Amino acid sequence: MKVIVTGSNGLVGSALVRQCMANDGISHVFALSRKRLDEAVAKSPKVTVILHDDFSTYPQELLDKVKGAEGCLWAIGGRATQFPDIDTYRKVQVDYTITAANAFRETLVPLLPEGSHFRFVFCSGKLAEWDQTKTLHFMADTRRVKGQVEQRLCQVADADAAKRFVVYCARPSRILPANAGLAARVFGKLYGAIGVDQLAKALIRVLLEGYKERIIENGTLLTL
Hints:
InterPro entries: NAD(P)-bd_dom_sf
Strand content: 15-25%
Radius of gyration: 17 Å
Number of strands: 9
Organism: Corynascus novoguineensis
Protein name: NAD(P)-binding domain-containing protein
Structural class: alpha/beta
């Protein structure tokens, strides 16, 4: 499978690229990135790095470069507190994601062989909330915005009459970097933290095999 990966310089995105390179089920990675990737990754014959400055638009020239892609691993986003304000966070988390989903559904899906599907796997977060009016007592902005992305992605999938654009929303708890120390790993077990490479492998498995549900909770990710 040829796959598009976003957020390739981030914690999750970089792990996704590494694990895709190591997975025999992935034939090629189109890494969309604002910045250049590590030389070892960029020089891999299995990876094409596509520098893309504006994730609010997908010109035909860019879409031509990712022709043949059968799925996307979306890892742009994070927590609201990592952004200067809620409007910026919503733009990056909601607008960028939905713009890409629509572009891929409209442009890439029709190019796939008859009967095949395009799987869009979104890295969301634990306790994402679809009800935008619900009172939340912690991480409210993050949970509401991630819930909004999930809901709108599902709407994009539902709008595809042929049901060839398929969406999965993964909800990891805290994500541990590959070099996390013993204390972080032990403490992380108390709230179901998941290692970044384990998460990447789980997302790739969903990409390759699909899953019975659209929303994939943290407990399930730990078992995939």
